[in-house]
Amino acid sequence: MTRTARVLGLGLGIVFAVWCGPASAQDDFEVSEPPPPNGSDNAAPELPPEPKDRPAPTQAPPTTAFPVEIEDKAPPTVVEGAACLFAHTEGVSPGAADSVARVICDEIRSRGVTIGTPTRQATGAAAYRIDISELSSKVIVTVAYHAPIGVVQRSRRVVISSLDEIVVAGPRLAEAIVKDVPIEDTERVDNVLTEDAKRSVKKRGRTRVALGLNTVVLPANGSFGPGLAGELLYDTNSFTIGAMANFASLKGDADTGAYLAIRIGGRYFLGPGDFAPYIGGGASLSTMSSGQDDYSDPELQGGGAGVYGEVGFEMLRTHRTRLALGARIDVPFFGLEDESTALSYYDSSTSEYVRNRGNTTWTPPITFTATIGF
């Protein structure tokens, strides 16, 4: 019994060892399999545990986002309204040109115009283009309004002695270009430019004296006679103004008359050449009496105001001495009374002599003149 019990116990021990051995070995030598491919239904492998002594992550403080400006070659600026475009800056540094453009564009903007910041390239419906250039010691600033860009609608220009004067010239340019008025209309006592204050160069005329001969004809009775002419004139390239006087002795077979006229007027030359025709006119004061072929002819005389017109030509206009030939007709505002038809009688009621006015004749004197001017 004792031997049998030992054999039975040994057999049970071998069976137990065989049964429990594989499980223990599997626990001691476990091999991890690779992760399943994407799309597999198998569970994802577990991540290795984090160490217990690893510090807890700290939360970063909140940050504020700021816009970042990236400088590169941007496309042309497109603005609503009008662009501020400065293009030609000959002889002026870019920085100075930018400052000038900013002053002008700010002045334009202050007058209610929607305008962008200064740029060298712009596209859009309109633009104010600013050109700056140096000429000797002067600076020329031009502002032109384009609508659309490339089509100039109006332009204004000033000449300043230095770039510092743009603080005075800028508001005047802006007012002139926005309101479409001449730059001269923007001048006030507090914004006179240096160039405006300088003595301006003007074209000068010339004062001269002309002397000559004339012949006067009275168409009423055909009397005529020679005389003298004198003129005090102020000449320019296109016209002449002055005072003129002429006298003539009107001779007849039986009696001699006289003619005297003083005129103030002008002449306009129909060309700039050395030989030029002219037309003219003005006001006159004259007195005249006609000569008689015989004592039966009317004895005409009278005087007063009138007007006159003339035509002629001048030669040697580019020389110091000039020659002028002309014809003039006077239109008097009075008539010539025929003294031969005037009657006088004694009025006993007044004890005075009464004279009845004679017949009146209106006649326009015609004068032909030849003068030399000095």
Quickly describe the structure:
The strands form 4 sheets. An 8-stranded antiparallel barrel has the order 8-9-10-11-12-13-14-19.
**Share in helix:** 10-25%
Annotated CATH architecture of the largest domain? Beta Barrel
Uncertain segments of ≥5 residues (pLDDT<50)?
22-34, 36-45, 60-79
Sheet/helix structural class: alpha+beta
What letter string, H or E per element, gives the SSE order? HEEHEEEEEHHEEEEEEEEEEEE
Number of helices: 4
CATH class assignment of the largest domain: Mainly Beta
Overall pLDDT, averaged?
78
Beta-strand percentage?
Answer: 35-45%
The CATH topology annotation of the largest domain reads as Porin
Whole-number count of domains? 2
Tell me the overall shape: rod-shaped
Main sheet overview: 8 strands, antiparallel, barrel
Determine Rg (CA atoms, Å): 56 Å
Strand order of the largest sheet: 8-9-10-11-12-13-14-19
Task: Give an overview in words.
The chain folds into two domains: 77-196, Rossmann fold, CATH 3.40.50; 206-373, Porin (Beta Barrel), CATH 2.40.160.20. Helices cover 16% and strands 43% of the residues. It is built from four helices and 19 strands. The chain has helices at residues 2-28, 94-109, 166-179, 194-197; strands at 77-78, 82-90, 115-119, 122-123, 127-135, 138-146, 152-160, 206-218, 223-235, 239-251, 256-269, 276-289, 300-315, 322-332, 336-338, 343-347, 352-356, 360-361, 366-373. Strand 6 (138-146) and strand 7 form a beta hairpin. Helix 2 crosses helix 3. The longest helix has 27 residues, at 2-28.
